[in-house]
Amino acid sequence: MASPDAEMAAFGEAAPYLRKSEKERIEAQNKPFDAKSSVFVVHPKESFVKGTIQSRESGKVTVKTEGGETMTVKEDQIFSMNPPKYDKIEDMAMMTHLHEPAVLYNLKERYAAWMIYTYSGLFCVTVNPYKWLPVYNPEVVLAYRGKKRQEAPPHIFSISDNAYQFMLTGEFGESGAGKTVNTKRVIQYFATIAASGEKKKEEQPGKMQKSRVTFQLKAERSYHIFYQIMSNKKPELIDMLLISTNPFDFHYVSQGEVTVPSIDDQEELMATDSAIDILGFSADEKTAIYKLTGAVMHYGNLKFKQKQREEQAEPDGTEVADKAAYLMGLNSAELLKALCYPRVKVGNEYVTKGQTVTQVNNSVGALAKAVFEKMFLWMVVRINQQLDTKQPRQYFIGVLDIAGFEIFDFNSFEQLCINFTNEKLQQFFNHHMFVLEQEEYKKEGIEWEFIDFGMDLAACIELIEKPMGIFSILEEECMFPKATDTSFKNKLYDQHLGKSNNFQKPKPAKGKAEAHFSLVHYAGTVDYNISGWLEKNKDPLNETVIGLYQKSSLKTLALLFAA
């Protein structure tokens, strides 16, 4: 029988990142340990620390920590420690003592050894290493293929292979929601190829957060394709799109980060360019994809000014519009006229309507997002058609990836929508994994004290989605022509402040962006800034410009906006 180390040889250089060595395992088993005195103790700065019980008296316990500190705490503030053989255990459900400090300590120890995957019963927990680890190589894929869960170390590939085996045998297997990188690894495992990147972190396949086209927070980057093009790996693109190689020359793509240490934009551009060809896009379509991407960048540089003694907007120069119109197959003068003087239907007639500078800027942003989003969705459809086997499907494996819960210094409408989605998903998860499971115990007569996991998220969800909730009030305000951010805020306060524990008035903080209200979410309290929410919710498209798109000489653009 092969030794554990020999069995891990199949994983190549990934082995030490997946399982502790036989030497380390034997050393842990032989390590001295006193089960009666070894404990975790609650610590004011570090949550929990290891310690040794010195004495017990009148419900109080005196503990000496590993750091040499002596603490006296209540009995319920100490937790039994697992023997050393459980250190870096691969499945935390196998621990003798399963509690918060034991889980946190195990995850911390594994993370310190760059073992980022750990099982917890049915689930695979991953801790982001924020660096590249050699645990996704082809040899690792092969090493997990056909292996039962207990036969290999924790990994997203094991979850993937088990799902595949369940599907083939017609059984039913539950799958948890994965974050973006692991979604890619699942796709990589099934198809051996993952999509190229999106955003600063990683690609989120099959979905597009269109707000990021025109706005990014400080720590974020816009879509990778912009920076790939500007990497100058293909200088002909710079010339064709009438752009520079400096992201800071383009407002829409330079509000956050413009580089990512782990990403080589030049290398990624070649991969993207090759993928477009491999996936069956024609030469004209490929050119159109690049041209529309460049046009979106130029849209962010369009400038407008207020006419003297009028509120009417007018172009502040035409050079940028000339470039954008050229790339989109439009007439520049017609584009500017449509932006500043759109035709709107009043009754049975069309009339020209003046626009303020703010209205034109909002319109330009909405149009840029619409172009990028429609192009993205068109590409997804085309790629799916190209990859379709045309064979009937009896089973499928679904992979769910959502944007993670977001708490930034500045939280806007996008963060509320993302966090609301997370609340709903968390409620669904809790209901099925905890509530229904415990109700099953009751039915079967198992003695069980019902545990409230503190996860009744209904109050926060209803505050957002119920009639006269935040979304409802926002929709209502969008119908009033004279509604403002202030009137929206006042209605929120009138309806919810003091009536819902989840709706709070934010506390002013130095150095932080202004906040207008706070929501108590399951993951923490988030301060929201409501500036621009009315326009974001309406996201109006200038129908006159859409009409120009439909008649564009660039066939792909006309197709994207075909009636």
UniProtKB/TrEMBL annotation:
Residues 87-563 form the Myosin motor domain. SUPFAM superfamilies: P-loop containing nucleoside triphosphate hydrolases (SSF52540). It comes from the Eukaryota. One of its GO terms (molecular function) is microfilament motor activity. Keywords: Actin-binding, ATP-binding, Calmodulin-binding, Coiled coil, Motor protein, Myosin, Nucleotide-binding. The keyword Glycoprotein does not apply. Pfam families: Myosin_head, Myosin_N. GO terms for cellular component: cytoplasm; membrane; myosin complex. ATP binds at G173, E174, S175, G176, A177, G178, K179, T180. GO terms for biological process: actin filament organization. Transmembrane segments: none annotated. Residues 34-83 form the Myosin N-terminal SH3-like domain. CDD domains: MYSc_class_II. PANTHER family: MYOSIN (PTHR13140), MYOSIN-11 (PTHR13140:SF857). Belongs to the TRAFAC class myosin-kinesin ATPase superfamily. Myosin family. This is MYH2 protein. It comes from Glaucidium brasilianum. The gene is Myh2.
